[in-house]
Structures are given as C-alpha cells and as structure tokens.
Amino acid sequence: MTTIIIGGGAAGLASAIRLKQNNKNIDVVVLERLQTVGKKILATGNGRCNITNKNAKHYNEVYNFFNSLGLILREDEGGRIYPYSQKAETVLEILLNKCDNLKIKIVTECNVEDIKKSKNNFTVISSKGTFKADNVIIATGGMAQKNLGSNGSGYELVKSFGHSITSLSPALVQLTSSSKYPRAIKGTRTKCNIKIELDGEIKKEEYGEVLFTDYGLSGIATMNLSDIVGKNFALKNPKKCVAIIDLIPEMSKKDLTKYLNKFDNLTGILGTKLASIISKQANNDSEKSAEFAKNWRLIITGTKGYDFAQITSGGVPLNEIDDFESKKVKNLYICGEILDLQYECGGFNLDSAWYCGIKAADKISNKTKI
Predict the structure, then answer these.
(1) Chain mean pLDDT for the chain
(2) How far is CA 345 from CA 172, 226, 283, 336, in A?
(3) CA distance 112 to 314
(4) What distance in Å separates the CA atoms of residue 83 and residue 52, rounded to the nearest whole number?
(5) At what angle do helices 348-369 and 10-22 cross, to 10 degrees?
C-alpha cells in the first residue's frame, strides 16, 4: 500500500507522519516542488510558528498530535499556541526527524505535472519520474507566497479530476490606500475599531491593532478584514471600498467633543502625529474633530496581493469532499489551503491544515483495515 502526498507543507507533513504512526507498513512518499519541505512553516507566526489556538476547532487533535512527537507547546495571550522554544525551526526539525525515523521518503525539487487514475491505482507524473500509488493526497497549498511553496499548481490537478474552484483572492493580507495620511504617520500603531464599507454598505468590522504604513494599512485587525477587500477587487467591476476607523472606540463622540473643548486637540489620546492630522482635517473645529476621530474614512484601493498574503481565500468547495476524500474520485484526498476553508489570524489556519492532514491519514488507515 503506497500513498503519494503532493506538497510538503503543514497538511502534507502531518498526513505523512500520521499515516506511518497508524501503520508502519504503509509506504509514504512526499513530493515537494521546492528544495526543502516546510518552508512556509518557518515563516508562520513571525518565525515562531503559531501552531494552533486554544479556541481553534481542532485544538485537541492538533495538540495531541504534536505531543506524540515530543514537541512541548506554550500558550500566550489570546490563546495562541507556540512551540516552547518560540522558534518555528523547532517545529520543522521535530517533523523532519519523525519523517526520517518513520522512513518517509521525501523527494524535493519535484514538479508534479499530471496524475492519471486507473481502476486500481494512480500514476503521478513528475519532473523526478513516475510514481505509482494506491492513494494520493493533494496538499499543495493555494496561491499565497509562491516563494514559500504555494504557486497555485494544485488547482489544475484537482480540476483534472472534475473538482470546481471557487473565486480566488488573497486573504490575511495588508490593504493599500490612495490616502496620503497613512504614509504621513507610517509606523504608528493604534487599537481601534475598523469597518470595511463597499458602495456605502458596511460588510465587516473588527476591533484590534491597525498599523499605518507607506502603502496603507496593516495589523491584525486589518488582516482579518482583508478577505472582504480581496474578494471585492477580484470582481470585474469592484465596488468603491472605504475603511472607516473609530480611533477612540472607548469614548463617545459627545465625550470627545467635551475633551476637545477643554484641551483643544487629541494629542493626549492619539499622540502628536495622528492628533495633528485629525485637527487639520477638521480645521480645528472640536465637533468635526470628534466626528473624524470616530469615523475616519480612508479610500482602499486593494490589497498587497498574493506575494504578501498569508492564505488564499477560496478553493475546492467543502461539499465536494468527505473527511477530505474526494466525492468524485475514490482514494483521492484534498487537504489544506487548496480547500475553500479559511479562518482569521491567530493560529486557526495552521490548526486547520494540520487537522486536514491528520484526518485524511486516519481515513486512509481505517480503509486499509477493512
């Protein structure tokens, strides 16, 4: 029994290890396009690898999986879970050591060109030769950060088996703005409430940190809203997009006006640069300054794109799989970012990727027992 896994990222490595943990007699081969596997894992969590989140749907399964590998985890504020070492390289080293220990074959610099399905098995045609398999797991990732492994090649592979792909766009990504103000205060961070408005209609809002940059907006709150923006600008005729920021959500407009009447400006709340911009926009009018501070509008022109995105929004619809096995092709499995399955920042997407791989491996293992 042989399983070929296309893609050596989080989902691919998790499925490879889980398969061999379940049955050491299963032959497992991982085909990776880059020179090394797990490159994207090293970049997650700013190099610390935000493995999962205490509030994630599959936290227990993911925690137990890494516990079985001897990786000790720790929790920070917000329930984010990291390796105890706070280093992503520790996570990858643990995974690679286990792959070596379980005799999992990893073939790097391997471009998969086609997959053929016969009655009893699959033939995987690649730049490193032809491979035969009883099961194939496609875990190639999406379109985000192709330099880390995900170049979109997996979409053509799944489409060749009759699967559909929903509209794709970058997500968990920075937003660009035509406004001069973010550039004027680049490097400034603030905790605020931010909404995305499309053609006058509020579509989504988030509370958290926003970072002003020379191109527009960054920060966790911004990233969590970026799926709405990305989908909008993927349209042939995108709607007018505006970010509406409440810079001081803890105070009402009435209270802010009172404060301004007493102290003339918002320096004591927002700091010099941001307070100065608000005052100039409002022509030093207290009521207008309060209005701007509570409803600061910035034109959004798009996102920073796939090269900067953490994930891809869209993919294979979930109604086309059952426990990550294709409903269209028996013994074909689809895992990770290539699925239409996205979450917010904080370890939720990596949690999903590990879980996809684990669950697919368990299903393959259970079928081999029958």
Answers:
(1) 95
(2) 7, 11, 38, 16
(3) 22
(4) 10
(5) 30
